[in-house]
Write a structure and sequence with these properties.
Strand order of the largest sheet: 5-4-3-8-9
Structural class: alpha/beta
Number of strands: 9
Distance between the termini: 34 Å
Order of helices and strands: EEEHEHEHEEEEH
Oligomer: single chain
Helix content: 25-40%
Largest sheet: 5 strands, mixed
Radius of gyration: 14 Å
Number of helices: 4
């Protein structure tokens, strides 16, 4: 059973997670700034690399908007992913997928006829007051940066 993702206008679910360097990162650390929170299934897989590098590549076009990537990978795996691709933004470890569940980004998936629970690739733009400005559930990896730029231009 997948939780319903928060919609535009909803308060963004709060979280505190460890980043790739083992430091605690809280959503509230970014109060007063826009934050793109995106959920990806697994560090250093093709789709996730496309998505993460796409966001890295638009980072200089988004002003002081912060980018936070979240996956169930351990901090060490996130660190390897960041080092390999020079992402330059926090990659947060949600090993028990509790945060993904709050954002409706954890649910049943199916591959080759096999059903399993996993990350549903999703992205959320959180405004300066901690509310969801835009929600993109089931987003494609290459649309994530385009959606962010379009939303910020509005």
């Amino acid at each position: 059973m997948t939780a319903t993702p928060p919609a535009a206008g909803d308060k963004a679910p709060a979280f505190t997670l460890l980043d790739q360097d083992g430091s605690k990162v809280k959503l509230t650390d970014y109060k007063g700034r826009k934050v793109l929170v995106f959920f990806y299934p697994k560090a250093d897989t093709p789709g996730c690399t496309t998505q993460a590098c796409g966001l890295r590549d638009v980072a200089d076009e988004i002003g002081d908007t912060a980018i936070l990537g979240i996956s169930p990978d351990a901090p060490a795996k996130q660190k390897k992913f960041d080092d390999k691709h020079g992402l330059g933004y926090p990659l947060l470890s949600d090993e028990d997928h509790a945060v993904a569940e709050k954002y409706g980004a954890w649910g049943e998936k199916s591959m080759y006829g096999r059903k399993y629970m996993g990350i549903i690739r999703s992205a959320f733009l959180v405004d300066e007051k901690g509310r969801i400005a835009h929600a993109w559930p089931k987003v494609s990896p290459k649309d994530t940066p385009k959606n962010l730029l379009k939303a910020l231009a509005e």
